[in-house]
Amino acid sequence: MPTSPDMYSTNETHDPALRSWVGSANRAEADFPIQNLPFGVFRRAGSQEAFRAGVAIGDQILDLGASEVRALTSSGAAVLTAALDACSESTLNSYFALGREAWSALRAFLSEILRVQSPFAGQLRAALVPQREAEYAVPARIGDYTDFYTSIHHATAVGRLFRPDNPLLPNYKWVPIGYHGRASSIRVSGHRFPRPLGQLKAADAASPSLGPTRRLDYELEVGIYIGTGNALGTRVPMESAEDHVFGLCLLNDWSARDIQAWEYQPLGPFLAKSFATTVSPWIVTLEALAPFRVPWTRPAGDPHPLPYLDNPELRICGAIDLQLEVWLETERMRATGRAPERLCQSSFRESYWTLAQLVAHHTVNGCNLQPGDLLGSGTQSGPGPHEAGSLLELSAGGQRPITLQSGETRTFLADGDRVIFRGRCVRAGYAPIGFGEAAGTVTPPE
Fold first, then answer.
1. Same-domain check for residues 149 and 124
2. What is the CATH number of the domain that holds 390?
3. In a domain, 51, yes or no
4. In what order do the strands lie in the sheet with 433-443?
5. Would you call 128 helix, strand, or coil by DSSP?
6. Which residue of 188, 321, 376, 403 is surrounded by the most CB atoms within 10 Å?
7. Is there a catalytic annotation at residue 154?
């Protein structure tokens, strides 16, 4: 049971007995029960409406810009009014910048008005929009995107493919490894993108050539949205690092492995990563995840983190038990009516580095994070063979094809493939909560 500090503590909004007057939120399989209340940015599909903030509840969206919602806060606290004012904008950046007091106030308010006993149910029904009738935007204006490498299982498996005698580099257990990615190519779930071109060089070729990647891959990641930032030249200590995190999403860091192999030395990934990144439309708040905190541990014999990356709360409940899945839907599956096939299950709790450590390390040199910045966790793989979060691992670098139930095989992605990420938190005594989907489809090169 998470204890202190408050960011790890449960409160009445997590009560598993809570039910909503939105009936679909009460189903056992619902991703978005009243205990979740994730934030996104939407409008009615095909309309010219402005994008604005909404909260997922069951299979509906509560429109936070609706007059029916705003009318309930006319005599409310200033912090709540400011929060809803910020949610009328086309991104959540201004809301993020308000900080934890505003985030918690709005969550408590939404929990109250959406409960089955709420006297406002009748008037608020007009503020609901069915999710199937909505289109979504990336929820925040992402100024900067940093991708980390937090799964030691992924780092070891990939390292073993290229350095069998020394798979894990000596700095891995001491420093959270990351690189700065491309924010402009981040898109929300449901988008389609063409197979990227880049320089390729076969091992027996005298020179490289330009062509479409033949080793296109997905990377199962968790996205971390920064809420409040820090000033340039200041550091965020571990003790307050999670105060700067608004919430989490699902993230697919698509990768062209053959382009990457040729270009990555000496400065790391470039065109192999910058062509597309997919995020789920809903951000699950850190407060909603409080019941699913678990102790953070390291194997016996591994080094203790340096003091700036350590604190007592980290070891009590620094990790999050978020179960992750990868599903694949091929063009043939769609044509024959087959359901997508699950390729992988893993857990975010396996991360070698935690949210707080990523924020503390990112700012230790004085780097300024800003509201809406996005951090990627890096590929989330577990210790088992079916817990690999990329095809690079599942197919042993392309040497071991995967046979699908449709009879097709894959070492890397084919044109027409649709990759779907799903995430869910489950713990006895609490209502399960989900993350929805992050899905993207590969189209032929243009």
1. no
2. 3.90.850.10
3. yes
4. 191-194, 433-443, 418-425, 323-329, 341-347
5. strand
6. 376
7. yes
Q: Closest by alpha carbon to 131, among 50, 286, 22? A: 22
Contacts 24+ apart (CB under 8 A), 159-166: 161/392, 161/396, 161/397
d(CA 400, CA 392): 10
Given 14, 153, 154, 361, the catalytic residue: 154
Flag whether the pTM goes above 0.90.
yes
Asked if residue 123 and residue 91 are part of one domain, the reply reads yes
Number of domains the chain contains: 2
Mean pLDDT by 10 residues, the chain (446 residues): 54 98 97 98 97 98 96 81 95 98 96 97 97 98 97 93 88 96 97 98 94 98 98 97 98 97 91 97 98 94 96 92 98 97 97 97 98 98 94 96 97 98 97 98 97
Site of tokens 């005599």 = 75
Collect contacts of 165-174 with beta carbons under 8 A, ≥24 apart.
Answer: 172/352, 173/302, 173/303, 173/352, 174/303, 174/305, 174/306
Residue 130 sits in the same domain as residue 150: no
Whether 265 is covered by a domain: the verdict is yes
